[in-house]
């Protein structure tokens, strides 16, 4: 029996804004999965990353042939910014899982007063209408507590790895942090991983 036959297929959709490290988080989770012996396909849509615009990426585990993801197909949505989580709900299959940052990072249109920012309670309610499992965490706040606001994404990854939804756990992510991130980032990201993992 091939590896592909024994692996559970899973489609993960990532969304955030430029400067948050959404693509770094995607790459780190992909490398964690590869080191766990899983078949991995990843794709990125950079968008307006340099200007704080939307950044989207996909990670497919278990033997997919291409990184294509259509509306209503994602098993798991990782939202690194609450408004982008709301906007990305159409990619989640009914009953899929949602892990989202609850700390807003308003886009330029909101900062300039050209558009309103929805209330977090509204975002969470909409998420729960679609998702069978929803977790909202103050990732930027916890990242700052861990030693770096930028490690907030690792808080979210830690929560996902500790949930049992992925075919690997927090220990595998910790090993990937030590292996793939610069040494100067290890302490804050490992602390962020612990905060995310213990938030379940």
TrEMBL record:
This is Indolepyruvate ferredoxin oxidoreductase, subunit iorB. It holds the Pfam family POR. Signal peptide: none annotated. Keywords: Oxidoreductase, Pyruvate. It comes from the Bacteria. It comes from Desulfovibrio legallii. PANTHER family: INDOLEPYRUVATE OXIDOREDUCTASE SUBUNIT IORB. Residues 18-196 form the Pyruvate/ketoisovalerate oxidoreductase catalytic domain. InterPro entries: IorB_Oxidoreductase (IPR052198), Pyrv/ketoisovalerate_OxRed_cat (IPR019752), Pyrv_flavodox_OxRed_cen (IPR002869). GO terms for molecular function: oxidoreductase activity, acting on the aldehyde or oxo group of donors.
């Amino acid at each position: 029996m091939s590896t592909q036959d024994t692996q559970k297929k899973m489609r993960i959709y990532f969304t955030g804004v430029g400067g948050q490290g959404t693509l770094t988080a995607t790459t780190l989770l992909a490398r964690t999965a590869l080191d766990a012996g899983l078949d991995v396909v990843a794709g990125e849509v950079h968008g307006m990353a340099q200007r704080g615009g939307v950044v989207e990426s996909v990670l497919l585990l278990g033997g997919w042939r291409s990184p294509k993801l259509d509306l209503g197909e994602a098993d798991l949505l990782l939202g690194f910014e609450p408004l982008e989580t709301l906007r990305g709900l159409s990619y989640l299959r009914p009953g899929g899982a949602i892990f989202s940052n609850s700390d807003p990072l308003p886009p330029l249109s909101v900062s300039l007063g050209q558009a309103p920012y929805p209330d977090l309670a509204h975002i969470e309610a909409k998420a729960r209408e679609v998702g069978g499992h929803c977790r909202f965490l103050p990732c930027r706040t916890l990242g700052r507590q861990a030693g770096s606001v930028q490690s907030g994404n690792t808080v979210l990854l830690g929560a996902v790895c500790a949930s049992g939804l992925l075919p690997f756990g927090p220990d595998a992510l910790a090993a990937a942090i030590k292996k793939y991130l610069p040494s100067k980032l290890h302490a804050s990201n490992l602390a962020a991983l612990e905060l995310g993992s213990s938030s379940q």
